[in-house]
Design goal:
The complex is a heterodimer of chains A (277) and B (351). Chain A is mainly α and 277 residues long. Chain A has 13 helices and four strands. In chain A, strands 1-2 form a two-stranded antiparallel ribbon. Chain A has a two-stranded antiparallel ribbon with strand order 3-4. The longest helix of chain A has 29 residues. Chain A is elongated and about 90 Å long. Chain B has 351 residues and is an all-alpha fold. Chain B is 79% helix and 0% strand. Chain B contains 13 helices and no strands. The longest helix of chain B has 34 residues. The N and C termini of chain B lie far apart (58 Å). Classes of the chains: A mainly alpha (277), B mainly alpha (351). At the A-B interface, strand 2, helix 2, helix 4, helix 5 and helix 7 of A face helix 1, helix 2, helix 3, helix 8 and helix 11 of B.
């Protein structure tokens, strides 16, 4: 299975969304957390039963055996049903069991994927069958998932781009030419814009040399799309140029910088003298 | 066109947060039901977020926000859409007396197959011990240590041991039996995923043990003891394990899908509720069998006459057969009659 395998679902409304499938390592860690929960339960149970054994040893033994069995079998079933496909381990690792079509999980699905665990755990408790099945399956399904029509997906956190941090209080010389700025937005595709944005967002992660080369390449590409006057790009680095492009693309309609006017061009009536902020 | 991402995020973020909060509430509260206005608001938020996702995909490709929105839309989509035919409230009474026996009858062929495989195994085990009495020692696993000796000696020992069954010991033994038998039944279901091969092996092996022990006792002239010992719990325990295996074979049938045109997923989806019903029924039956085995089967004559034990076992068997063959039949026939009347009504309407 691809490390970043995704499942694409098209809703009846025509909206397409993809879900990132959980990898074997994340699932193993979630299972490990669940095993710790099981051990904690056994520890607590033994403490309670040790007190209870003074009254009736046989009864304590019976209660212990049944409680362990019910918890062992029922833990995954109960938590995944109660928390819509999550156990404690899956919550910690931000994973979730969902229907393979993105539909709501049914109790029978939760039950089957958990009852088929003994096969996936073979041999002994090493999960080799389940692990191998999930590695060979394009959706990362173990046998229990296959039978129950379920998959395990990641739940991403909201991380929105901090545009203010990148752009605030920065002079943008390209804004002095609004018609060229508009042409830039018209000619660039969302994919190109996204590449520029991601380059700016992740610039501190790049090595200095790679950073210079990347922004030089990007700047050359954008300069080829729209030619700004020499005074607009004079004295600014490639990185600053790309940052200004991103500012124009993703924050249109901000207050424009005032362009230095040629002496031959008459100033409009009542206008203030040119000020560069 | 590229959207003004900052303005877009600022405008839409409150709706996404509201949707996420609603989803968290729904996901953490189990079977919470929304009021009409809440449902309308939830649907509006879902549509707005889905529309935001479509807009973001078309006019910008900011990946982190897109992934977050995809996750939100996926969760909301899963809350709104499901494959259940209709909403129903779980009624244990209706499930036990209607759904369980109806499901058993609907999948009866798998049950007969499970029974047939066990009988084949039992014949094999019986013949093995009949032709070679030493086979008992090598075939019987360690957990059947008490059956490796002479049956007559064991019967004499059991009949003399009148005080050996304490209430505490029986309770613990009962719990052990329930756990063991339910585990075996779950395995019989689970190994259906190996295209039924695992289930067949498990049934055949259990059949060998059963046939071997039974033949050994019969040949030693201990048939009455055998019946008195096995019948009270065995008439429930053995059918329960067959039903567990029946579920496993149903699963295997869905995986193989001989002569069926549905996709694998559709076949598995179709059998899932039946598997659930059968395995839950098995668990109930085995709880009863565990109690009977620990508190009733382990007492022998003269404490408990064999005639009483055999009669009790026969009554249980008749009750079980009646339950599985008759319960819920009236409703089934009504549904069939209603289903059969439909085409006639359609023809009438067309005419």
């Amino acid at each position: 299975m691809n490390r970043l395998a995704t499942l694409h679902i098209r809703t009846p409304e025509g909206v397409v969304f993809s879900q990132e499938l959980a990898g074997p390592m994340a699932r193993f860690l979630a299972w490990f957390v669940d095993v710790l929960c099981l051990l904690a339960f056994v520890f607590l149970l033994n403490m309670v039963l040790a007190m209870f054994a003074f009254i009736s040893f046989g009864l304590a033994q019976a209660v212990g055996m049944l409680s362990f069995f019910v918890f062992y079998v029922g833990y995954g079933i109960y938590t995944e049903w109660r928390w819509r496909g999550q156990t404690i381990g899956k919550r910690v690792l931000r994973l979730r069991v969902v229907d393979v079509h993105g539909l709501r999980l049914k109790f029978s699905q939760v039950l089957i994927r958990n009852l088929l665990r003994p096969v996936d755990m073979q041999p002994l408790f090493f999960y080799l069958v389940g692990g191998l099945a999930s590695l060979l399956n394009s959706r990362g399904q173990r046998l229990g998932d296959l039978a129950a029509n379920t998959i395990v997906v990641r739940i991403p956190k909201l991380t929105e781009p901090n545009l203010d941090q990148l752009m605030a209080d920065k002079f943008n010389s390209l804004r002095a030419w609004p018609h060229l700025e508009a042409r830039l937005r018209q000619r660039l595709s969302p994919a190109e814009a996204s590449i520029a944005l991601q380059a700016i967002v992740r610039r501190d992660l790049l090595e200095p040399r790679a950073r210079v080369e990347l922004f030089a390449e990007l700047a050359a590409h954008f300069k080829g799309k729209v030619q700004f006057p020499a005074e607009a790009v004079e004295g600014i680095t490639d990185e600053q140029y790309v940052r200004d492009v991103v500012d124009c693309l993703f924050r249109p309609g901000r207050k424009s910088a005032t362009r230095p006017r040629p002496e031959s061009e008459p100033a409009p009536a009542g206008s203030a003298p040119p000020v560069i902020a | 066109m590229i959207i003004d991402l900052q303005r877009f995020l600022a405008a839409e973020r409150p709706f996404w947060t509201e949707l996420e909060e609603t989803l968290n509430r729904l996901e953490n509260s189990g079977g919470a039901v929304m009021q009409f206005e809440e449902a309308r608001r939830f649907h509006y938020l879902y549509e707005r977020t889905a529309s935001g996702l479509a807009k973001l995909n078309t006019f910008s490709s900011e990946p982190d926000t897109r992934r977050y929105l995809e996750s939100l839309v996926a969760r909301a989509y899963g809350e709104i859409n499901e494959t259940r035919e209709r909403q129903y409230r779980l009624s244990p009474w209706h499930w036990f007396f209607q759904t369980l026996p109806q499901t058993f009858r609907r999948r009866i062929r798998a049950f007969w197959l499970a029974l047939g495989i066990t009988i084949a195994g039992a014949l094999f085990g019986g013949l093995a011990v009949a032709f070679d009495p030493d086979a008992k020692g090598s075939i019987l696993p360690e957990m059947f240590e008490s059956h490796r000796g002479d049956p007559a000696e064991r019967v004499a020992r059991e009949e003399q041991d009148r005080d050996g069954h304490s209430a505490e010991g029986m309770t613990s033994f009962s719990a052990q039996l329930m756990v063991n038998n339910i585990s075996v039944s779950i395995r019989a279901l689970a190994f259906g995923v190996t295209y039924g091969i695992g289930t067949v092996i498990l049934l055949f092996y259990n059949g060998i043990i059963l046939g071997l022990v039974s033949a050994d006792y019969v040949m030693a002239g201990q048939t009455v003891f055998l019946l008195g010992w096995l019948l009270p719990h065995g008439v429930i325990e053995l059918p329960a394990i067959f039903i567990g295996a029946q579920a496993g074979l149903v699963l295997a049938g869905a995986l193989i899908g001989w002569g069926r045109r549905e996709t694998l997923r559709a076949r598995l989806r179709a059998v899932a509720p039946d598997l659930m019903t059968l395995i839950c029924g098995v668990a109930l039956m085995l709880v009863w069998a565990g109690i009977v085995e620990a508190f009733f089967s382990q007492f022998h004559a003269p404490v408990l006459p064999y005639s009483v034990k055999i009669t009790f076992g026969c009554i249980e068997l008749v009750a079980l057969v009646f339950f599985l063959s008759r319960c819920g039949r009236a409703e089934e026939e009504r549904e069939q009659a209603a289903g059969g009347a439909m085409p006639a009504l359609e023809v009438k309407a067309r005419a």
